[in-house]
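Thread: Newbie trying to understand structure tokens

Hi all, I'm a second-year student working on a class project, and my supervisor (Dr. K.) asked me to get a predicted structure for one chain before our next meeting. I've only ever worked with sequences, so writing a 3D structure as a token string is new to me. If someone could post the tokens and maybe explain what I'm looking at, I'd be very grateful. Here's the chain:
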Amino acid sequence: MAIGKIIYDEAAYLKGMQSLLPQGPAWEFEDDAIFKRLMDVCACEFARIDADIARLIEESDPRTAGTTLPDWFDEWGIPDDCLKLLPNATTDDYRNVLILKITTLGLPFFELVQVVANLLGYNCYIGDTNIFTVKSLVNHRIYDDQWRYTALIISVDSTLVKYFRTTSRVSMALAEWGDELWECLISSLAPAHCNLIFQYGSN
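---
Reply by user tm_fold:
Sure, no problem. This is what the structure looks like when written as tokens:
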């Protein structure tokens, strides 16, 4: 029962309708009479509607929504392509992502990256590209001036390396780095003009 709401059950509605009937023996029905059964059906429906109305507050909040939760998912595009990468994702996983999307709406990109990183257990660093010049060290990456305003480097403290094994397929790489879900989520949040460079480990 919703807090602060008075919910009438089927018996209460039936009693209320019976009290509105005219007085007299003609309006005293047996339990198996057609009119009595019709009133039972109406009382049941009124009680159901009353309960639905009482749940409106709960259904208006995605943290407690039940009946309308699929509508919330449709409205916010859940599951998206990134969430489909999650194996065995549950409704609660989708609900948590929905709440995250709502509560972080309007946050700057840098803050969004940190929020997602914390959820996935990463320590994250965001930096821009250093343009290679004659004063740069020989081991610096070669970025030209076009990268200055469009590229961001997203670094996490985990290497996440998957090595080729004897059970691997011959078409697989000798080693793979990265977290496909992490990169998908961050790419979906990034401004359209940004080129993201993902780095793993201390490099």
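A couple of things are worth pointing out once you decode it. The first helix runs from residue 10 to 19. The radius of gyration is 30 Å. Feel free to ask follow-ups in this thread.
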